[in-house]
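A protein record in our archive is deliberately plain, so that people and models can read it alike. The tokens are whole numbers drawn from a learned vocabulary of local backbone shapes. For reference, a complete record is included directly beneath this paragraph.
>
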Amino acid sequence: MSKTCAELFEGLECTIIGNPNELVEGLAYRSDRVNPGDVFFCIVGFSVDGHSFAQDAINRGAKVLVVERKIYLADATDVTEVVVSDSRKAMAHAAAAFYDEPSRAFQLVGVTGTNGKTTTTYLVEHIARVAGKRTGVIGTVGIQIGDEHRKSEHTTPESPDLQQMFAQMRDARCDVVAMEVSSHALDLERTWGTAFAVTAFTNLTQDHLDYHKTFDAYFEAKALLFSRDYPARRVINVNDKWGRELLRRCTANGDSVITTGFDASAQIHPVEVSYDAAHTDVTLEVRGTRYTFSYPLVGRFNVENVMTAFGVGLQLGISAEAIVAALIDVPAVPGRLERVKAAHDGGVSVYVDYAHTPDALTKAIGSVKALSKRRTIVVFGCGGNRDAGKRPIMGRAALDADFAVVTSDNPRHEDPLAIIDDIVGGMGGGEDRFEVVPDRRSAIARAIALAEPGDCVLVAGKGHEDYQLVGDEVLSFDDRIVAAEELERANGGGE
């Protein structure tokens, strides 16, 4: 596969210095991954400026450089430079062109929001597949192309990687692809040039303020997916003011919008909900028609996710009856209020959830409390080198449980005890309702040891992750496996 320089940047405001007919054989944004004939994008990052690696890229065979300023390299007279105002946007534009606009070959669903993205994309994929569509998924848990599964490094990959995935999905004849779209990806223009059929908004709560700095900036990053730059049919959860603001903007733009929420004003809303330990019974009113069914997911927040997925299904042209039929047997989403299975559980139910924001933790605790016959015990921590402002808020949220065990999450390059101190700072007045156990395995074991028959234990924060990040080390650690082992051990089934 190759494109000329002129073909890659057609329609983009730029200045080509050199040969516009130079053939480009591949795309690279890291100089150590350049192959002969590649174009190298000099991305200006937060700590590293890609322009500093231009010579290394040329030495490795790059024939075209995309730059935000002219680079004067004495030994590179045969190198073509493309001068642009925004190298990230140029990279996304070129990536879509290089792979022949692959997102236009199927119906692409983009799901954004603080919480619920993963579950909603899984629900959408399942609905589409049961309806007879070939499907794909891109998100936090991994990449799925048909029946093939891969791990992912980012919720939303960099634009060249993303467009390559789209091309693979096109070649696999996918009809519908469900994709998580992060605020970072939107702000960093990883999705620029991507054609969405449907975009969906789940909610907005505190997260990533280390990056966005303010809540308004965080919202505006999410809102980009609902702007005129990304024309599509919309599904919007209007439970909070952010969703209602999106609705106002989309209505003003003349977009097709389906609203969801617990309020009766939403086009899709619940009339009756009954929660059980292994399933939820619900009656949804969908544009004036009521549908009563049961699905094997638990928790109030999953009602929101089901409604959003229902709306997406309708916007994809799938009938309400077919959507209901699919939701009845939807599979569990890895690490999303996933019940831990153990041969010997002593009457204690243990759930693992990815909840790592204050709102998500509050909702997860509330969902588990609704299932618990007695007490609810939560094990949680906060990640290092991330939004420190949410740590005391997470601490306060944890006191919604009957008892909390504060532990380490992914400390990265921070002192785990300092992170825990930040959390505990928000738990004033609840000293008799929590304890600190820094080692995560020991914390899980402690929570299970405290539990009595009929109690529920929620292990929050890491969900599907099978590792723990400590300094530069990636340690093997899966909450689901560890909880199952400790549950067995506590009830005489372990070694």
